Amino acid sequence: RVGGHQPVPVDVRVISATHCNLEEDMRQGQFRRDLFYRLSILRLQLPPLRERVADILPLAESFLKVSLAALSAP
After folding, report:
1. Which residues contact 40 (CB under 8 A, 6 or more apart)?
2. Which end of the chain has the lower number of beta carbons within 10 A, N or C?
3. For residues 29, 41, 55 and 57, what is the CA-based torsion angle, rounded to 10 degrees?
4. What is the pTM of this model?
5. Cα 3 to the chain's mean position, in Å?
6. In angstroms, what CA-CA distances link 33 with 23, 27, 39, 41?
7. From first to last of its 74 residues, what are the pLDDT tens digits of the chain?
8. What are the residues whose beta carbons fall under 8 Å from the beta carbon of 59, sequence distance 6 or more?
9. Nearest to 15 by CA among 33, 37, 42, 34
10. CA 66, 72, 73, 74 torsion: positive or negative?
């Protein structure tokens, strides 16, 4: 626990997404600094899909393929 004195073993993976600017929120005191650094070990910044129109068809085809396999459809 943050601020605790006894270690607590955990095995977790956290994936998070936001439209907010967490660095700015942290500077303004609206987001906890310790949580920001724990979450930002690996940061991926992607432009919105509306700015990557060419990616829509390949993504849709991939999702369809995965869905069909999950449903055992031909």
Report:
1. 22
2. C
3. -100
4. 0.52
5. 26
6. 9, 8, 10, 13
7. 677 888 889 898 888 888 899 999 999 999 999 999 888 888 888 899 999 999 999 999 999 999 999 998 66
8. 49
9. 42
10. positive
For residue 52 the two structure tokens come to: 């990557």
| Six-digit token string for 53 | 């129109």
Cβ atoms of 23 and 36 closer than 8 Å: yes
**Beta strand residue intervals within 4-74, DSSP E:** none
Task: Let me know: does 42 contact 67? Beta carbons within 8 Å.
Answer: no
User: How many C-beta atoms surround the C-beta of residue 28 within 10 A?
Assistant: 9
